[in-house]
Fold each of these.
Amino acid sequence: MSRLDAVTEGYLAYLRDVGRKATGTLRDVRCTFNRARPVFEPIRPGVPMWKRPLEDYLLWLEAMREAGRTASSLNKFVSHMRGLLEYAWRSGRIDRNVLDGFSLADDAPRSEPRSLSLEEAQQLVLACPAETASQRRERLMVLLLYGCGLRTGELCALDVAHIDRQRRELTVHKAKNDRPRTVPIPAGVFTELLAYLLERGKRGALFRTEARRRRISASDVGEVMHRAAERAGLGRNVTAKALRHSFATHLMDRGVDLAVIASLMGHRSPHETGVYLHVLPGRREAAVRKLKLGGNS
């Protein structure tokens, strides 16, 4: 990526060295700045990004909105730019941060995640045979997607070394937003995983393709899911993402705390996990009814 002005590069170095931000986060912030430069320059040529009036930022956001960016994306861009302005203000380069407290309303309705019922999930697992090595491999892929709530890319990136046999857990190193996490492996899944490892070997990718023995890709996972879903009579629209959503939904249905589910799924905060509340009608009301207030408390 092209180099930015000295102040902006100083801010990115600050995020890296002092803020200890992950590589992916730094890349994301730099992309925001690189996308903003060609919008800013025609408005007020030669003026640094961090030294512009509020009107310029509003024009930039309007250009991004017209380009199809969602409100949530725009708020992320504002957050990146606000941080730069805060850095410039604290270092005495500008009089004030004109984006301080500025945000956009996100009125877009959240779509309901596709998830399976508990019966459908069991039906899917039962439809995965374990007679041959190839079948055991595909069955374990389905079990890990559902039993550990993994993203497709996270499953593909798993290595044998990421499995901790003593603690019965796996570590997701290549996670979204560069946020590695450790996930306990359910007992039944762990038993099948140990048997698979005896066949698989001690190092390298956990799952490889049969033909060229390369690490599996997202398309390979999609094909496995399609075959399993058709065998289970669930149609071809059951995806790996549906299993991840089912993992969260079924945990929530069992009363697991939202913060715990957020941690297991690698969400940045429980707010992201709140999208699953739709599947539990009356949950909030039931929680309130548990409170003992008044004379009987």
Amino acid sequence: MGATFSIALYGSDRASMNQAIDAAFEEVHHLDALLSNYLPASDWSRVNREAAKRPVEVSPELFAILSDCIEYSRASEGTFDLTVGPLMRAWGFAGGAHHVPTPDQIRDALQLVGYQHLQLNARERTVRFDRAGVEIDPGGVGKGYAVDGMVTILRARGFRNALVAASGSSIFGLGNPPDEPRGWPISVADPWDHRKNAAQVFLKDLSLSTSGSYEKSFRSGVHRYSHIMDPRRGVPAERAVQVTVLTPRTIDSEVWAKPYFILGHDWTAAHKPKSWGVLYCENTPGAACSWVE
């Protein structure tokens, strides 16, 4: 999935700990074979190759993931969208040189973008695209789903204190480390000065995911464009510079970080569940980040 996964685990029996860690990483390899668009033999890659030609039958697990992604897209007013790949390529964020596309290039890419192009048949458990050129990208959901799967395995084996992370951007704190009853301490960097922290949080049976415009960006003239794309308009989002989301499931924190980034502080305040935490950093140099109430 183009990510590095890690586990920090506390326990009293090294052998059982190693077995649990091995089982958790086996789950990652299983999901990589299912979800990776880097592997030609994965089920996800097979869907991208064949679904514009015919309905493609998929496993119950993959069908459930795709069904959930459609619901995420609807709930986020289309700002979470698995089909954003053509836009990412148009801007040079999927390989090739970064550049600002012409209005015609954006319009052409938008013809292939939109979760409505995915046709799911629950009875046959198939996926079909309604036109050639549509493709799906697991980048906004795969890591979070995998972290949750790893945590489920650790819990099933009786472990209650672990920190599981995917590339440092999607993290789950299971229980707490022995010397910190509040949970696993995680520092959220200040987006304007990474030598400073915008906040410190404690993850106790809680996940954290962060999206920032500084992760991948390029400058054209006086303007800087980020990789966080608004799939509805075909241009990078600019309201925020960084958004951090805390939720009970990592798939939720990973998925919702970008819609909250795109839709802005006020939309986030009106729509996020009350129990979730969102640290919103506006795209104003030097502005302080604030928790969304």
Amino acid sequence: MTNVAAVWQYPVKSMVGVEVHEAELTITGMKGDRRWAVRDDERGGIRGGRKISALMRLSARPLDDHHVEIVSPAGEVVRSDAPDIHERLSAMLGHRVTLCPLRPADDVDHYRRGPGDSDDIVAELRAIFGRDTDEPLPDLSIFPPALMEFETPPGTYVDAFPVMLMTTAALDALTAALPDSRIDVRRFRPNLVLDTDTGPGHPEFGWVGQRWRIGTAELEIVERCPRCVMVTQQVAGDLPADRAVLRHIVRDLDQNVGVYAHVATPGVVRRGDTAVRIG
């Protein structure tokens, strides 16, 4: 039997999120998930942890449907409606940014990619994905075509697809493969963590192309999740940077951890709900 072990919501893109008891899944993703992001006031464009790694050291928790609270590793707290939010967040990050709520999909200029850090596209991609010179880049054709032009699919702040899942078996397998690393779910940022009875390994890799009912929602598992430089970075104040994690993922897991999903039928998922394959 497969059950929901944890439900994670990330109110601000690339910041540490919160574990919740239940969440509503909509066609565009989890309600309350990635409702805010930062815009780079120095280079332009919405930015995540691939470009501003200090984002991953901050935590965000929802206050209500319209406001969040951001906490630094030092314990400094600031609300999204504070009059000096942009200045204080910039100081926390050491980079000038503006905190932006999610905007409509037709505000295309808001979502358009900012300039890269290199004119060499291969060098830019290697930096984004954290690949060494002798390591392969992921197959970019799996990503939505809109990401060639936009930082995120317009109307969302998700990286590529609405929902990301992984299993407790995957976390256990990573722990066994990397005994000198701290394997923590916060490093991998899934929305749903499923507890399976399929034994060790990464069973979710075999779910691509399948349809699952989880709680009252139905998900279509569409792709394995290629991992980028973010899994190597410091998370919050207690999870250190660790390049070994990505080296293992690239070398031994064909670059992937977890799977992406579309929401085929909206619904509610709760911790403890049964997950059943239906197609």
